[in-house]
Structure prediction request, 126 residues.
Amino acid sequence: MSRVVGGDILRGVIFTAVVDANVRHLRPSDVVSQAYSEASDQVPDELRKPISVHALALELDIPYETTRRHINALITDGLCVRAETGIIVPATVIGRDQMVTALRRNYENLRRLMTDLREGGVEFAA
Prediction:
């Protein structure tokens, strides 16, 4: 992900949070969600739920201005677009080979981190 967002960790976190916010309303049991369950299947932009910069800042517990600045940079870089009610990461961005590779790598790193934390005795609330 660092190559995608220019090596800025916070920008990567914000980008990932936008991706998550755009599709989290789709539950695994939904018929619509099942239609896009494979890694190669992209949720169309019209099904993505935009998130406002303000909601994103609150969700991540970081200052609004910091969030706004990073979102503007992501928009300038062509990684996000401003929709009528917030920000989305378009399916065309998610589908880029570089992005798919980065997202898979991040997912694997997160899985390793969670495993290490559990093995270290950290308990997670459900």
Summary: Residues 22 and 37 are 15 Å apart (CA to CA).
